[in-house]
Amino acid sequence: LMSQLLLLASSLSRSNQFCDAGTSSKLLIKGGTVVNAHHQQVADVYVEDGIIVSIKSTIMVGDEVTVIDATGKFVMPGGTDPHTHLEFEFMGTETVDGFFGGQAAALAGGTTMHIDFVIPRKGSLTAGIEAYEKKARKSCMDYGFHIAITKWDETMSREMELMVKEKGTNSFKFFMAYKGALMINDEFLLEGFKKCKSLGALAMVHAENGDAVDEGQKKNYRTWNNCFICFYEPHQLEGEATARAIHLADFVNTPLYVVHVMSIDAMEEIAKARKSGQRVIGEPVASGLALDESWLWHPDFETAAKQVMSPPIRKRGHDKALQASLSTGVLVPFTTLQLVGTDRCAFNSTQKALGIDDFQKIPNGVNGIEERMHLVWDIMVESVQISVTDYVRLTSTNGSDADIIILNPNSSFEITAKSHHSKLDTNGKVEVTIAGGRVVWENNELKVAHGTGRYIKMPPFSYLSDGIDKKGCLLSKLPPSPSGESQIQHLKSF
Ligand code: URP
Ligand code: ZN
Ligand code: ZN
Ligand code: ZN
């Protein structure tokens, strides 16, 4: 526990320069249960100038130190939301709030770091990331970038290298859907995967069969004019694309990250690949764990349109299966899905109404950046599907960020209808959020400041790339030999 938190502490030191006056830079969090992804123990945590200086059973301090009593509460790393779209121009409009507003909401919900998707501008990744650097200038919370690849040519390939080597990004998202807009075909997907492999970057996919979805939606629109629920994106087409992406990543021999896993079909493809030793990561999103399709059938357009996203929120049953796949089974010592995002891409009711006469034009996206930590606590920990240490593992990525939250397991509160179809009572409440050593959320009040968030660079060749070249790309063509086989098994046992 100590070494983990001290590791976190060392990364906190970078934030010194952002600690401003107004809030004490010396904090003692007293008597809480300190939790990381592996352990929990009752301890005091002392923070000075943004650094966790010490964690001990009892720490004595002077009057100049602000003391926060955490007795009976959990002291945990702040959450990381690996999938957001703030200030995203999409489907003829732009998401409701910018980086500052979205981040403030996140901090109020115990998330202290997020990774947003840079969308290329006029086909250029450089222009795209420059635009996002500008959007993020006022950040009040740490952030990183994934880069979306929406076409393929030599320039794109060169620019990917620039993004990794000069911009500190290490992940690229490929859209297998949104035909005519962001979608790319299998040939380009393969090119992109190969480039990711050579750069040690992580390939991510939006996995749906974009051709079939497009045809299905057009046909439904023609046939039914505008029945709202004709939003046609069946779970089989999510499963198909997930399987295809997995097989192509295996062919290239590069790790794969499947974003917004919404269905049993996709989840099972990921499970199968992981069991065979392939390096595949699956990310469900809070709305997919908490909601079901029935809201799309709501007679009120506004209520229904609020839940429209791609891939869609599925029928009851998918939600429970996705939940279960986040917990470690007794027989299977690893989980199928590894972390929870939000895919926060929020549009207001006026923007959603762009699709009132044609469901195909409803801007796709849901909320959740503020609610994720609470929803995962309520759905997963309260129901005893996962432990508190598992909770930390699923909601905050190790090492990227060292901020702290204090969660009271005995306080229940109401998540209001902002992101949700209806009010929802949840148990467990983030009462305090500390970002960069500053208390930014306490007593239901935000104290955030422009420019206090840092851009977090993410290096290539992570643990996912480790040793992967030892597995030749066409190994399956080699004649089997007993010793060769066991070696392959060894290399695949990840
Ligand atoms: O509907 C969604 N998911 N909107 C955000 C864009 C994306 O595909 O992630
Ligand atoms: Zn997507
Ligand atoms: Zn609900
Ligand atoms: Zn997304």
UniProtKB/TrEMBL annotation:
Keywords: Hydrolase, Metal-binding, Signal. It comes from Glycine soja. The modification N6-carboxylysine is found at residue 173. It comes from the Eukaryota. Belongs to the metallo-dependent hydrolases superfamily. Hydantoinase/dihydropyrimidinase family. One of its GO terms (cellular component) is cytosol. Carbamylation allows a single lysine to coordinate two divalent metal cations. GO terms for molecular function: dihydropyrimidinase activity; metal ion binding. Residues 74-402 form the Amidohydrolase-related domain. Its cofactor is Zn(2+). It holds the Pfam family Amidohydro_1. This is dihydropyrimidinase.
